[in-house]
Structure formats: C-alpha cells, structure tokens
Write a structure and sequence with these properties.
This protein has 497 residues and is an alpha/beta fold. Helix content is 34%, strand content 25%. Strands 7-6-16-17-18-15-19 form a seven-stranded mixed beta sheet. A six-stranded mixed beta sheet has the order 9-2-1-13-21-20, with helices on one face. Strand 10 and strand 11 form a beta hairpin. Helix 2 packs parallel to helix 11. The protein is globular, with a radius of gyration of 25 Å. The two termini are 33 Å apart. The relative contact order is 0.19. The chain binds flavin-adenine dinucleotide and 2-acetamido-2-deoxy-beta-D-glucopyranose (3 copies). The site of flavin-adenine dinucleotide has 35 residues, from helix 2, strand 2, strand 10, strand 15 and strand 19.
Length: 497
C-alpha cells in the first residue's frame, strides 16, 4: 500500500509539472552537395523535421555528383558509380519509394590478366568453373564467402539501429557499434594483412582479391581491410543498377525532400550570433556561395556537408571558428573512366582468333607496367547490351585506369573503335591504413556526411552516413541524448523483439 501511495504521488507531481516544452524545430537548414550523400541527407532531414523547415541545397555542378552518365552511340552509360549490391538496403528502399526500376548487371565471363596472359579464365559451365576454382585456389573461395558473409552480417545491424532511430556521433563509433574491435582493426591494417591473418593463400590474394580491389578502388591490396572486405562482397551475385541511370535516385530524393536546389559553389561557413525574438542570442551559420554571377549567402540553424572536404575537393573555408576547424588533407584517388565503342583486341590477351574469346570482363593483377585496372563490356542504363554481337567483340567497353589512356594504349586494347568518351574523377579516397575517419561533428550544428568514405566509399555508405547525420542532427537539436552513441544496441534491440 505505501508503494502504491508513492506512485500516486509521483503521478500527481507529473500532472502538476508538465514536461518542458519541446524545443522548436530549426527554421532553416543548408545541405552542401547534391550527390547521393546530399540528396539522401535532404530526404532524411525532411522526414525527421517535417514540412515546415526551410531546406536549401547548394550544388556547384549537377545533381548526382559521382553518379553520372555519358552518351555513346545514342545510348547512356554509367561513367561513375555503377554497381549496387543486393544487400544495399537504403538504395533498394530509395528505388522502391521513387518508383524507379532496378536492372540486373549482365553476367559476363571473367578473365584475370597478369600483364602477359590470362591466369584465370572463368567457364560458363558451373561445375567446370567450380573445379577450376578448386584446382587453382583450393578452398579459398569458400573461405572468402564465409569470411565476408560474417562481416557483412554484422554490418547489416546498421539498418536495425537506424530503423529504431539510433545515431552515432563519429564514424569510428558507428563502425564499432556494428563490429566491435574487429572492425576497428580492419581499418588499421591492409586487406592484404587482414586476409593473410584470416588464412588466405598469397596466390588467392594476388590473383583474385587484388584485381577486385583494382576494379572497385583503382588501388591494390594495400587499401584498408574494411573497404577491402566490402570490395570482396562485390564478387557476390545479384548486383544491379538503376534503370535510366543511378543518378535518377539523386534527383528523385531531391524532389521528394522538397529542398530548394541552389546552383552554387559554397565558399565559406562562418558562425553568427543574432538577437532572438525575446532578446536572447541565437546562434546561426552564415553560408556564402558563388552562383557564378555573384557571391551571396544566407544564414541557417544547421549545415550538412555532403561533399568530400579538402583543398582540391569541396574547398570550403571555415571562418572565425574558435577553436578553428582544420582543413582536411583529404587525398582522393584519380580514376579515369574510358567508354569505348569498338572491338577488343583479343590478341592482346593471347587470343589471336576473336571468335574464340568468350570474356566480357577482364580484371588485372597489380603489375607495374599495366596501364589499365580493368576492361569490361557494359550495357546502357536502359539495360540494352550488345550481347548478340559477341563473336565480333563489337560492343561498348568500359576501361578503368589511373591515368588518361594514350592513343597508343587505346590502339593496343582495341583492334578498332569509332567513339570514345573519357571521364576524369577524384573518385574515392587514396586508402592508407591505419585509417582515421574525419569527424562527423565539425561544430555544434555542422555535420560532415562524407567522412565515412575513409572507411569505405560506395553509394550505400554515403546513404547510411546521410541517415546517421540527419538523425544525429535531429537528436542533438532536441536533446535526445539517449538515441546517440548507445552501447550494446544489438543485445538491447534483440530484447525488444
Ligand atoms: C569511377 C567510379 C566508380 C564507382 N563505382 C561504384 C560502384 O560501382 N558502386 C558504388 O556503390 N559506388 C561506386 N563509386 C563510389 C560512389 O560513386 C560514391 O561513393 C558516391 O557517389 C558518393 O556520393 P556523395 O554524394 O557522397 O559524393 P558526390 O557524388 O561527390 O557528391 C558531392 C556533390 O557536391 C558537389 N560539391 C562539391 N563541392 C561543392 C561546394 N563547395 N559547393 C557546392 N557543391 C559542391 C559536387 O559537385 C557533387 O555533386 C564509384 C565512384 C567512381 C568515381
Ligand atoms: C587502431 O590504431 C589506433 C591508432 O592508429 C589505435 O588507437 C587503436 O587502438 C587501434 N585499434 C585496434 C583495434 O587495433
Ligand atoms: C580554395 O579556396 C581558396 C579561397 O577560399 C582559394 O584561394 C583557393 O585557390 C582554392 N583552392 C583550389 C584548389 O581551388
Ligand atoms: C593487338 O595486340 C597485339 C599483341 O599485344 C599487338 O601486337 C597489336 O599491335 C595490337 N593491335 C592490333 C590492332 O592488333
């Protein structure tokens, strides 16, 4: 009975003292960058903060960013980020929400080239292929499958955490909440070291893992173990892309977010204090941008930066911050995409008779004199491929390389061609483990979305970082500390079931 009395008293007190009024939503928010990171940030911010907040997004070039297409022979082809994994749940969700359609990646036979000859040739017969893999690499293939699956399984926890509105204040904490010290350790070592520790043979690492790293990141097995494992997951089946072009996801998210897109280059961000309606000081950020014809700007309660920072990248200066926000020496790797409509020179790969050359994908080993990372037949963004013309090898090919190909090099790779499109990218970080991710929180209400790329760069990662930043911004604004940096979430959410 006394306990019951206490409860009544507490209830009475609660009724007498209403909770402090919830803080008002911010009036206006700026997002810098209209790639998948910025578009997804705008989309998640709108969902969190509702219809009233003014959302403005500055984009200096075209929405889509590193998702872009190039025209060749009247068809459009992906020239930047192209392949999406079947377990990329945010990308899947966007495509469904926006009424877009996926197109499966056309399956091609794979050859691995060592600079002189093909050291591995995939067969179209499942069983023969299995025997070939066993013969060459023993059980390394199975080991890869299990090893990667375990890491991807743990990584997938992020979707539950985010569905329950949990956010992390740093990229390290986010990764640690998913995979503990194992994930942190992966960032500290190269994929080469990580695979050796996991018991893979050097032959498998050189002939299978390294070519995958080269096609995905233009770099060899010296990249960090985490991005390396993500890269290995790209050997799975079920890869897809978005019909009409992946960049449609960005424009779709932007219109769904009802953000006002301002064509302009953000030059600087500066803290400002203004008197509020009751005379109390209100902290704001002045964002200054150039529209080409003029330099202008506005003030915002919050700023989200969804473009890689660094002098050669987003190049935003942070003025008058105390302590100062340091410039990030963000090294990005140059990758050249060359789209070629022509006939592959099969002699180059040791097949003087083009009709006998069955491969549509050639990955390369890490050899010093190789001038390209990979060459593969590609379908247009509508899913149209030149499969029927296979024996003549007349098709659209995509070459990835670290330098622009010379005419001489093109003439070595192709016996003939009639059109070429070249796209130069600062594509993804130059990975150098031990890797340290940049902070997410640059100031009270300035969030940096793209720092996650230091762990791993891919559309899905920037989308995950976008949702995390939007949630983090929301919770910090409203003082929901219990939704930030929670430990033991996996166990906790299991118990909630
Ligand atoms: C060749 C290549 C192949 C790739 N392959 C894949 C793949 O197969 N699968 C995959 O998942 N990922 C792939 N990626 C990676 C993927 O494309 C990126 O991770 C992703 O697109 C990054 O999105 P983002 O929005 O974070 O950055 P970005 O797309 O770079 O967007 C940033 C935007 O900000 C704008 N901007 C920059 N500075 C300013 C400023 N000061 N003011 C205003 N606007 C500014 C830029 O114009 C840009 O539009 C690939 C990338 C490249 C280049
Ligand atoms: C990774 O390296 C950093 C320093 O570079 C260190 O502080 C951290 O403890 C290391 N983590 C693991 C799991 O090895
Ligand atoms: C970066 O911006 C500063 C001024 O804001 C400018 O002086 C500098 O030239 C820019 N750097 C590059 C590489 O564009
Ligand atoms: C094709 O490759 C072979 C072998 O590398 C080379 O000798 C030849 O010049 C290349 N070009 C053409 C058009 O055959």
């Amino acid at each position: 009975m006394p306990r019951f009395g206490l409860l009544l008293l507490l209830l009475l007190l609660a009724a007498l003292c209403p909770p402090a009024p919830a803080r008002q939503n911010p009036a206006s928010i700026a997002v810098v960058g209209g790639g998948i990171g910025g578009a997804a940030t705008a989309y998640f911010l709108r969902r969190r903060f509702g219809p009233a907040v003014r959302l403005q997004l500055m984009e200096k070039a075209a929405p889509g960013g590193r998702l872009a297409t190039e025209q060749l022979h009247g068809q459009a082809y992906e020239a930047g980020g192209s392949v999406i994994h079947p377990l990329n749940l945010h990308m899947k969700h966007f495509v469904q929400q926006l009424g877009l359609s996926p197109v499966p990646l056309p399956g091609s036979l794979l050859g691995i080239y060592d600079g002189k000859e093909l050291v591995f040739e995939q067969s179209s017969w499942y069983l023969i292929n299995l025997l070939k893999l066993l013969w060459h690499y023993g059980f390394n293939g199975l080991r890869r499958y299990l090893w990667v699956e375990d890491i991807v399984d743990r990584f997938m926890r992020i979707y539950r955490y985010q569905a329950h509105d949990y956010a992390f204040s740093s990229n390290e904490r986010l990764l640690h909440a998913l995979g503990g010290d194992d994930f942190t350790l992966l960032l500290n070592q190269s994929i080469d070291e990580a695979m050796q520790r996991a018991g893979f043979s050097q032959k498998y690492i050189d002939q299978m893992a390294s070519p995958i790293m080269r096609i995905n990141y233009g770099q060899g097995v010296n990249i960090n173990g985490f991005v390396g494992v993500i890269s290995l997951a790209w050997m799975d089946s079920g890869l897809w892309s978005v019909k009409g072009g992946n960049k449609l996801v960005c424009s779709g998210l932007l219109s769904a977010s009802k953000a006002e897109v301002i064509p302009g280059t953000v030059l600087s961000i500066e803290p400002k204090v203004r008197p509020g309606p009751r005379g109390d000081p209100v902290k704001l950020y002045q964002v200054t941008y150039s529209t080409g014809s003029e330099v202008t700007g506005d003030t915002y309660d919050m700023v989200f930066i969804a473009a890689p920072l660094g002098p050669d990248l987003a190049n935003i200066s942070f003025k008058n911050f105390e302590p100062p926000i340091r410039q990030l020496p963000n090294l990005y790797h140059q990758t050249i995409t060359t789209l070629v409509h022509g006939r592959l020179n099969t002699s180059f790969f040791g097949y003087p008779e083009p009709a006998t050359f069955p491969f549509g994908d050639i990955f390369t080993m890490d050899k010093p004199n190789l001038f390209f990372s990979s060459v593969g037949k590609v379908s247009s963004v509508q899913g149209v491929s030149a499969e029927a013309e296979l024996p003549s090898q007349l098709a659209t090919w995509r070459v990835f390389s670290n330098e622009v190909l010379t005419e001489e090099q093109l003439n070595l790779l192709f016996s003939s061609y009639d059109s070429v499109k070249v796209k130069q990218w600062l594509a993804y970080p130059e990975y150098r483990p031990p890797e340290e991710c940049p902070p997410i929180l640059l100031h009270d209400h300035i969030y940096y979305v793209s720092g996650i790329e230091r762990a791993a760069s891919a559309m899905e990662f920037n989308a995950i970082a976008a949702k995390n930043a939007a949630l983090l911004g929301y919770h910090r604004w409203h003082g929901n500390g219990h939704r930030i940096d929670q430990e033991g979430l996996h166990e906790k959410l299991k118990a909630e079931l």
